[in-house]
Write a structure and sequence with these properties.
heterodimer, A: mainly alpha, 6 helices, 0% strand, B: alpha+beta, 4-stranded mixed beta sheet, 45% helix
Amino acid sequence: MAGLTGRLSTVVKAKVSKLLDRAEDPAETLDYSYQRQVEQLQNVKKGIADVVTAKKRLQMQENSLQQSVVKLDTQARQALSTGNEELARTALERKNVAQTELQSLDTQVTELETQQEKLTESEKQLRAKIEAFRTKKEVIKAQYSAAEAQVRISEAATGVGEQMADVGLAMQRAVDKTENMKARADAVSELEQAGTFDDLTALGSGEDDIDQQLKQLSSQSAVDDELAKMKGEIGQGGGDAAQIPPGEAKQPSESGQA
Amino acid sequence: MIVRISGERQYELADEEQARLNELENAVVSAVEGGRQDGFAESFEQLLGYVRERGAPLPDEELEGSDLILPPADLTFAEAGREFTGEGLIPD
């Protein structure tokens, strides 16, 4: 096709061609070429399985964090109803951190989901092409002289090779993203192992190192808001404990009341 | 003319679409070279959208090579920049 001067596509095509040259050795026998295609298809399937594994790991972390959020919320309420505001605040700080992690995990799971769909679709295309190649190879061998068959089958192999290179590229991008997510998942695991989201009743009275760090991690204004809200909901028996600090009393009470 | 969107699939477009495709591509390249991130996102989306809209999906079992190969839709601005200065999608 003459006159295709687009730089973007030319650069990409040149690079895919380079991958292709690496993948396709013209000296290979035709049947071996097909055999290798099938092997590479297996690698693609394995790559997709890795993405699924990474996704499942994140989903398990999501579940565990979800439980922590519920537990910490309950503990905050319990602490508040017995008048222990400090403990309630600590529980809410931890809940806040767990929720932030949850949101981030959710984004990542969605991202991996997209990667998985794309790869599965690419794999389907590749499988169809390899199957077409297998049929075509036999037809060409039967119809043409050896030399001509070689040329025609090489052409057909280019179509498979291009798809293969493209799946390889998509796989590489998925792996890069998965690596980033693994690092993130490890960080969450460390927090969990450090007992960050554990039972607060085991904590005793004073603050520990974790709490110092959590104070920095969590959004204090969100924690203040939630604490105030929880106080209102509980409407504590003691009455005086239900006071809301003046700075946080700005609920949506000023405007538009019916 | 067969155009592949990397990471998606191949499309078949009429040969006459070539001029318009070149225009759209040039817009992407000039946005990248001018350092305009918004312009890049918009023009790149336009380019891919045009191919998807005007092209007929090539059946999976077709064994033709592509005349054009476009980068994947999730190409970032930074990646696009590198694309024209060496490294790019596939390291040299």
